[in-house]
Design brief:
- The protein is of the alpha/beta class.
- The chain folds into two domains: 78 residues, Arc Repressor Mutant, subunit A; 162 residues, Rossmann fold (3-Layer(aba) Sandwich), CATH 3.40.50.
- Helices cover 57% and strands 9% of the residues.
- It contains 14 helices and five strands.
- It has a five-stranded parallel sheet, sandwiched between helices.
- Helix 8 crosses helix 13 and helix 13 crosses helix 14.
- The relative contact order is 0.14.
């Protein structure tokens, strides 16, 4: 199973906080939200004032910074200073968009949020995981994907690309279909679970069944430390700006996950070489015949 541990403070700390939010308790979540909403202010606060403003105890602050991988509060502040220098214009999700009336202003906010999410995802991208996933799919020549809700959109993007390469890919969004597919899996099979928050009950339940049948389980999510990560052999994690978007459910995590899976697709294409070229030729001809 995928090894899980504290995120290193050597990584950009704002991204660390965002990727860990789904596993935080209520007090930690209050601290995290305060940091995300007031990054410049936090770096200058004493631990006592920070505790007072985020409405938690100093001991809770100390535990929080260690949870992030910092040795102490002083190291946390140093990381915040570096983060603020590097990310002075960080985009904070869709927060505030409900107070905007100008179409261009709204559009700019949405574009900027998605661009920021892609940049952040690249900075935490696990290239070794992408390489392993591509290799597994090439060897298996087929992939099962369990997804629900908008994660089906992400799954559909990968399915379309794999079909262009002659690789079988089946998406299961129905709970009964997922259960049946998982129960018939065997060693050598590869199944991918896509869940933005890593908590989709149906997907998790059926991935556990697939794992018990010795299938290789891949996870795609927008957060670290989720129940999904505990099940999976390999994880791909994107950045996400949803924790500061207050119910708008922005597209950024979906877009970032589609781009990560595009990286997998290109590695598969490169490894197949001449075979991929022939598949592209045949499928392009087939699609062209459907156009007027």
């Amino acid at each position: 199973m995928n090894e899980k541990g504290p995120v290193s403070a050597n990584s950009e700390i704002i991204l660390n906080i965002k990727s860990q939010m789904q596993q935080m308790n209520p007090a930690q979540t209050r601290i995290a939200r305060y940091i995300l909403e007031n990054p410049d202010r936090v770096e200058g606060l004493s631990i006592g004032n920070f505790a007072k403003e985020s409405k938690v105890s100093e001991a809770t602050i100390s535990r929080f910074v260690k949870f992030l991988g910092c040795a102490n509060y002083r190291e946390f502040q140093a990381e915040m200073v570096k983060s603020n220098i590097l990310n002075h214009e960080r985009i904070r999700g869709y927060a505030g968009v409900d107070n905007m009336n100008d179409v261009y202003q709204i559009s700019q906010k949405i574009f900027d949020t998605n661009i920021q999410c892609l940049v952040d995802t690249l900075s935490i991208l696990d290239c070794k995981a992408i390489e392993k996933i591509a290799d597994l799919i090439v060897k298996s020549r087929q992939l099962w994907i369990f997804a629900q809700g908008r994660s089906v959109v992400t799954a559909g993007s990968l399915k379309h690309r794999l079909h262009r390469l002659g690789i079988s890919c089946t998406i299961y969004s129905d709970s009964h279909e997922q259960a049946m597919a998982a129960s018939l899996m065997k060693k050598g099979d590869v199944v991918m679970g896509i869940s933005t928050y890593g908590k989709s009950r149906t997907v998790l339940k059926n991935l556990r069944i697939a794992s018990s049948r010795h299938a290789t389980v891949i996870g795609v999510s927008g957060y670290r430390g989720t129940p999904l990560e505990e099940i999976c052999d390999i994880m791909l994690v994107s950045s996400s700006n949803e924790e500061t978007s207050f119910g708008f459910e922005p597209s950024c995590a979906t877009v970032a996950q589609m781009v990560m899976l595009d990286c997998v697709y290109i590695l598969i294409t490169n490894s197949m070489k001449e075979e991929a070229s022939e598949c592209f030729r045949l499928t392009c001809e087939a699609i062209e015949s459907e156009r007027e």
